[in-house]
Structures are given as C-alpha cells and as structure tokens.
Amino acid sequence: MISPNRIKQILSLKTNKGRKKEQLFIIEGARCVQSFINNSNLVKEIFMNKNFAMINKKMMQLCDKQNIIYSVVPDKDMKNLSDTKTPSGIIGICMFKPLPSIDYESKRWLYLYEISDPGNLGALLRSAAWFNIKNIALSKNSADPLNPKVVRSAVGAHAYLNIYQDIDYQIYFNHEYFIIGADQNGPDQIENSDHNKKIVLVLGSESRGIDTSIKNKMNKVISIEKLGYGESLNLAIAGSILMKNIAIK
Questions:
Q1: Range(s) of the domain holding residue 219
Q2: How many domains is the chain partitioned into structurally?
Q3: pTM of the model
C-alpha cells in the first residue's frame, strides 16, 4: 500500500512543475522500464500490480540485480498512478539525466522546432536513438520531453539521448554546421549526406512547419519525393526517413 502523500508526490510528476521540483519523472510499460534499467542508472523505484508481478518474475530479478526498490501495489493505486486508460501494470520513477555540456563538435544534431505534440516528439526521439543521432535540441514552445506520453512513446530512448531544451537555432551557425530544414514544399530532394560534414536536421511542427525567417537562413531545405498517393507524411515518419539519410554508424 502506498501512502496518500507518496501517491500525491508521484502524481505531481505528471506536471512540468512537479517534475522540476522533484527532479524526477515517470516511466511506464514493461519495455520502457526494462530499457531504462538496462541502459541507465536513472531508475530510482518501481511499482507493479499483483498480476504483472506474478507473470514477470524476471523484472523483479532485474530490480534485485540492479538494487532498485520495487513494490507490489493494489490495482486501484496502479490505475491512479498510471497515465493510460488501460495500465500496463508497471511504472517507474526516474531521476533526471545529468546532461553534458553541449558538444559543438558532434557530427549530427536533431533540432526540433516547436514540436508540441507529445506523441510525435516521443516517436522522433525513438527514431533518433535508433539512427544514432544522440544530441537533440528543442526550441522554446516545444512539448516537455519528460511528459509521460513523450517518455512512453520514446520507449526508453531518453536513456541514450542528450536532450537540451529552449535552444536557439542560431548557435549552430556560430559553429560551422550545415543546416538542413525539412519542408513539404522544399526545393531540394533528400539525399545521402556527407559523413564528414557537421549537420543539423531541423524539423518543424505538423501544423506550422518551420518559421519562414528561420527557413530562409538554412543551407538547404529538403522534401521527400511522393511516389504514390497521399496528402502528406506524418511528422514522425518523415523525420525518421530524413534521419536515416543523415545517420552515421
């Protein structure tokens, strides 16, 4: 049984203010929790319901191995703590990841301009981790990367990535980066990039795209050629295609 005060503290982590105050955030779902445990030392505590604990003994063994505190809680508490309509049966509490200083020698950056949809942001972070684009910058007016829906959609990518918030795109011009913007009507076609070049890929929100004043300063504005039928690609899909083309092994 979790005390009412503890439940209140955990529920506060669903808000930006609560996360900043406690320096903690919520992870949810077996794959997400396992990914964080395997790839970081950020997991502080885990809660699971009785049914999950009965059929996932390996998770408890993993917690024991990593010296992570875990508790089996009633279904009503799990439902209260969960951010989904149908709880998976496990949530974790993680510490904020200490961020290194911004590395201006990094060959690849993903810059996300005013991406406000948590699902899209999480999916883009998941793809960035897959394509080894480790450094992510978010502009102002972007979704909080530690929003529970973002974390859930990223399925553990946060443990691998360095995610910087409130970054002004201008900094990249001061460090000799080649800036590539994505736009549905971009004049240039996507192509494989020079691996020796320092590149920043800029993606804008589905509704507004990239601000024209920013787009006009970019080295290249690219689009993905349509070969069949459709009005547009989902932002996360388009972003993943573009990341594949600038990726470095």
A1: 108-246
A2: 2
A3: 0.92
Catalogue the long-range contacts made by 94-98 (C-beta closer than 8 Å, 24 or more residues apart): 94/24, 94/25, 94/26, 94/27, 94/36, 94/40, 94/42, 94/43, 94/44, 95/23, 95/24, 95/42, 95/44, 96/23, 96/24, 96/25, 96/42, 96/146, 97/40, 97/42, 97/158, 97/159, 97/162
**DSSP per-residue letters across 169-200:** THHHHTTTPEEEEE-TT-SEEP-PPPTTS-EE
Residue 188's φ and ψ, nearest 5 degrees, are -105, 145
Biggest CA-to-CA distance, the chain: 60
Helices (H) and strands (E) in the chain, counts: 11, 11
Of residues 231 and 188, more confidence is placed in: 231
When computed from its CA atoms, the radius of gyration of the chain, rounded to whole angstroms, is: 20
CB distance 90 to 23 below 8 Å:
no
Residue with tokens 């009507």: 185
Shared domain for 140 and 211, answered yes or no, is yes
H or E element that contains 241:
helix 235-246
Q: Please give the pLDDT value at position 190.
A: 66
Element (H, E) at 221: strand 220-223
On whether both 88 and 113 belong to a single domain, the answer is no
Res. 232 pLDDT band, cuts 50 70 90 = confident
Co-location of 78 and 113 in the same domain: no
